[in-house]
Design brief:
This protein is of the alpha+beta class. It folds into two domains: 9-173, GAF domain (Beta-Lactamase), CATH 3.30.450.40; 182-253, Winged helix-like DNA-binding domain superfamily/Winged helix DNA-binding domain (Arc Repressor Mutant, subunit A, Orthogonal Bundle). The protein has eleven helices and seven strands. The chain has helices at 9-20, 25-40, 65-73, 80-88, 94-98, 107-114, 148-171, 199-209, 214-221, 225-239, 244-253, and strands at residues 44-51, 54-61, 92-93, 117-127, 130-140, 174-175, 179-180. The strands form two sheets. Strands 2-1-5-4-3 form a five-stranded antiparallel beta sheet, with helices on both faces. A two-stranded antiparallel ribbon has the order 6-7. β4 and β5 (130-140) form a beta hairpin. α1 runs parallel beside α7. The protein is globular. The relative contact order is 0.13.
Length: 258
């Protein structure tokens, strides 16, 4: 990506409309990837809900699952991009935030390079006047840095994504404070529906309902024990459970509503 190529206003408007009209998280994620690809050349998308200043994955595409594990256990615990967005409410990219000299020596850059990316950009998702999430994107290989024009396009997409999330809050798909509303019912009495939980958290919930220990869940999913503990703690907070035993009971009874 040699720089910000010209994008007709009609293309920008059509892309924003496609995103704003999304009515499920899956559709929103797909439409965001299509739009950001057309407007900036980016190949990866991550939509995160913020639990305080802690990001919880809603949807990702074009990104290896291992990237999210590394992010959750490292950068995600103290993310300078999220800190900047919560302070200033503006789209930011790594090079502009950290500086040309420090960027190649930074923790975010190391994480990106480990998984085949070069630069990233992050923008705010809002509901009712407050930042409730972030939209991350990144480009691969030796792509050129994001430009001011890219940040302006990203801002448009973040506004469109915020509109889509507002519709999902009204539809009961999202809770305005805690994010995805899980529906733990299955017509056949089976495991909880995974549609509305972030994929990793949903898989932890499913395995927990099957009586698996944290170590067994970690082994089955190929993640660390600590990551499983963090997922379980997040599920307990979301569903008002005091411990993993109570959480499992609520999951199995279908009482999951954040």
């Amino acid at each position: 990506m040699p720089g910000a190529r010209h994008v007709p206003e009609r293309t920008l408007a059509e892309s924003a409309m496609l995103v704003a009209e999304s009515r499920t998280l899956d559709a929103l994620g797909r439409n965001c990837r299509q739009a950001i690809g057309r407007l900036t050349g980016s190949s990866g998308v991550g939509l995160y809900w913020l639990n305080g200043d802690t990001p919880e994955l809603l949807y990702s595409t074009g990104v290896d699952e291992g990237f999210h594990d590394d992010y959750e256990t490292g950068l995600g615990k103290s993310d300078p991009f999220i800190d900047s967005i919560l302070r200033h409410g503006r789209v930011v990219d790594g090079l502009s935030l950290i500086g040309a000299y420090h960027w190649p020596r930074s923790i975010p850059y190391d994480l990106l390079r480990t998984w085949g990316f070069c630069h990233d950009m992050c923008g705010p998702l809002r509901f009712d006047g407050r930042v409730v999430g972030v939209f991350y994107t990144a480009n691969r290989g030796r792509s050129a840095p994001y430009t001011e024009e890219h940040r302006e396009r990203m801002d448009v997409l973040c506004r469109a994504t915020s509109l889509a999330l507002a519709h999902m809050v009204e539809a009961g798909i999202l809770d305005a404070r805690t994010g995805p509303v899980a529906r733990a019912r299955a017509p056949d009495g089976g495991s909880p529906s995974r549609e509305l939980l972030p994929p990793r958290a949903a898989e932890v919930a499913r395995l927990l309902c099957r009586g698996k220990t944290n170590k067994e869940i970690a082994r089955d999913m190929g993640i660390s024990d600590q990551t499983v503990k963090e997922h379980v703690a997040g599920l307990c907070r979301r569903f008002g459970a005091l411990n993993r035993t109570e959480l499992a009971v609520r999951l199995q009874r279908g009482l999951l509503r954040a």
